[in-house]
Amino acid sequence: xxxxxxxxxxxxxxxxxxxxxxxxxxxxxxxxxxxxxxxxxxxxxxxxxxxxxxxxxxxxxxxxxxxxxxxxxxxxxxxxxxxxxxxxxxxxxxxxxxxxxxxxxxxxxxxxxxxxxxxxxxxxxxxxxxxxxxxxxxxxxxxxxxxxxxxxxxxxxxxxxxxxxxxxxxxxxxxxxxxxxxxxxxxxxxxxxxxxxxxxxxxxxxxxxxxxxxxxxxxxxxxxxxxxxxxxxxxxxxxxxxxxxxxxxxxxxxxxxxxxxxxxxxxxxxxxxxxxxxxxxxxxxxxxxxxxxxxxxxxxxxxxxxxxxxxxxxxxxxxxxxxxxxxxx
Length: 329
Ligand SMILES: NC(=O)c1ccc[n+]([C@@H]2O[C@H](COP(=O)([O-])OP(=O)(O)OC[C@H]3O[C@@H](n4cnc5c(N)ncnc54)[C@H](OP(=O)(O)O)[C@@H]3O)[C@@H](O)[C@H]2O)c1
Known about the structure:
Layout: E1 2-8, E2 19-25, E3 33-43, H1 45-52, E4 63-64, E5 70-76, E6 88-90, E7 101-105, E8 110-112, H2 118-122, H3 127-136, E9 146-149, H4 155-166, E10 170-175, H5 181-186, E11 191-194, H6 199-207, E12 214-217, H7 222-228, E13 236-239, H8 252-257, E14 261-264, H9 267-273, H10 276-291, E15 299-304, H11 308-316, E16 323-327
Parallel strand pairs: 9-10, 9-12, 10-11, 12-13, 13-14, 15-16
Antiparallel strand pairs: 1-2, 1-4, 3-5, 3-7, 3-16, 5-6, 6-8
Helix pairs in contact: 3-4
NADP nicotinamide-adenine-dinucleotide phosphate (NAP) is lined by residues 44-46, 126-127, 130, 151, 153-156, 176-177, 180, 218-219, 240-244, 265-267, 318-320, 323.
């Protein structure tokens, strides 16, 4: 049987020109392994940074794109227990998920509820835990407190709005364009503001001069300073994304006279230090919410794997209405 995978042999600033769907012989599962057929895999900003060579870890080349996704078990190797043919599974993180079929060790696969939307399940490994941990790992927030975030119409931003509300936290959501405001409100956000030089004044007015202790920054550049200016004395800006491509700017005045801290968050670092129990607890919680339709992200479009170049190009564009995902086609 023939399979296809989205492969690239070099990195560069226009990744859609470097990645192609190539055929390969479908592998046979060995002992303890299963053959999985892809159901869906998203294209995240980190995938694009991996293709351009700007991400924190880079695979050897040639490589298959994709860090997360969901599939269905279609063949069991010898000595496999606990998995059945037809079971929906979460693919191991970083395994090169943009391929129609892959062999994986059965112990590395997390079984998922088969009735849930595969597109939503495919997006669960990276962005939902990031949103959850940004709210819990940086500042010890109490119910009733405020947080502010930019790129609020991103997938992480939308999950964060939903999870914050569930925890009794209030969010100030910043986007870079008026047309994105309604999408964030549809996720349940009450305060959505368009970024600008007077952001701090508008935030103070919208929140009744609330004492905000945490700002969550996916953008960097001058946007970091604008978030810092919205914080109370001693507040923290946590940067977790580089959407502007610019270094985070936080002025000496914020750091010295207002006691602002600038720090970073990377999910990969959390995976390295969190106990298996903590990881299971987080993922169990998120799987339950996503399967129940209580936590979701908008989908802009799906592309068949054979059109991976077009899909990567679409995902590289700003001003999308949601995620781009690859499906087998
Ligand atoms: N540190 C971690 O562990 C971790 C984990 C997961 C994700 N992330 C990061 O989180 C961020 C969001 O990821 P995602 O998958 O949620 O993104 P996404 O859904 O693809 O959305 C991208 C967001 O970035 C905004 N954006 C694009 N270009 C921009 C620019 N030049 N200046 C300012 N904003 C810009 C978009 O706004 P428009 O709609 O207006 O274009 C949109 O809000 C990314 O930077 C990603 O790498 C980090």
